[in-house]
Amino acid sequence: MLQTTSRLLAHAKNHGYAVGAFNTNNLEYIQAILEAAEEAQSPVIIQAAGSEIDYMDGYVFTDIVRRITGRMSIPVAINLDHGESYDRSIQCIQYGFTSVMFDGSRLSFEDNIAVTRDVVKAAHAAGISVEGEIGIIGGTAEIEDMLDHSQELSNPEECRYFVEQTGVDCLAASIGTAHGLYKAAPKLDFERLKTIAALTKVPIVLHGGTGVPAADIKQAISLGVAKINFSTVVRQACISQMKVTLADDPDNLDLMNILGRSKDAMKKAVIDMMTMCESVQKAENWQ
């Protein structure tokens, strides 16, 4: 059953877990995420960034998700990840997304508020929830190349003001994670997270979930994180299995066999992340 992200995150906060949000860009990827969620009886957010949406075609993406979820009992949200503009957000609402994220973190603080407010106004009118972002959540290479990246982290008072001025349903806050593969375990600023959650009173979103230790995930959830984004870990599982399959049988021309094995590897990775998020079996009595 399709739901907004805000409904999923409200349930997660009330029951002490986080919802995994998984990026996708093709059929097997979509199947892996949704089949894993059904098998684990876990709420799930399936999402795509602009380039992924363009690759799949937004209408095709949402139609596939709706067809598959129509046979399932779990709550699912379809989310735009790192929407780069107001127009992209409106486009995804038209595609049938149930939630959108506008990422104005590289704009000035005032412009981020102004555009996010416009996205919220349009999305809420359509019954769609909105995720905003304060602070820059870059790639691991960017973070690791910086001697001091504290200036990139979210300012708690700015987060409070941003939420008040925009009306976003959840907030992506920069507390030390990054997108991609870490060379060493990230150092999360839990005091900053605790303060942001207390001041904003909205569910907090943790981007760059791949490679964050399970103990840190658990602590982040206890401090207000209700949505955790994963992408690299699932793609890595897919490609690693594909390499093994082709190395074992280089003349294999059966795409269903090759991609099917990779889909199974992706399913396992998704379930592993759902286990870390403590969302397994949380869909059984979901309301």
Task: Describe it.
This protein is an alpha/beta fold and 287 residues long. The chain is 51% helix and 14% strand. An eight-stranded parallel beta barrel has the order 1-2-3-4-5-6-7-8, surrounded by eleven helices. Helix 9 links the parallel strand 6 and strand 7 (204-206). Helix 2 packs across helix 12 (255-276).
Protein topology:
Elements: H1 5-15, E1 19-23, H2 27-40, E2 44-48, H3 50-56, H4 58-69, E3 76-83, H5 86-95, E4 99-102, H6 109-125, E5 129-134, H7 140-144, H8 156-166, E6 170-173, H9 190-200, E7 204-206, H10 214-222, E8 225-230, H11 232-248, H12 255-276
Parallel strand pairs: 1-2, 1-8, 2-3, 3-4, 4-5, 5-6, 6-7, 7-8
Give the gist of this structure.
This protein has 287 residues and is of the alpha/beta class. The chain contains 12 helices and 8 strands. Mean pLDDT is 92; it is low at 140-148.
The biggest sheet, with number of strands, parallel, antiparallel or mixed sense and barrel status, is: 8 strands, parallel, barrel
Strand arrangement, largest sheet?
1-2-3-4-5-6-7-8
Question: Helicity, in percent?
Answer: 40-55%
CA-based shape? globular
Mean pLDDT: 92
Q: What count of helical segments does DSSP give?
A: 12
Just name the CATH architecture: Alpha-Beta Barrel
Please compute the radius of gyration using only Cα atoms: 18 Å
Number of strands: 8
Uncertain runs with pLDDT below 50, 5 residues or more? 140-148
Strand content: 5-15%
* Count of discrete structural domains: 1
CATH superfamily: Aldolase class I
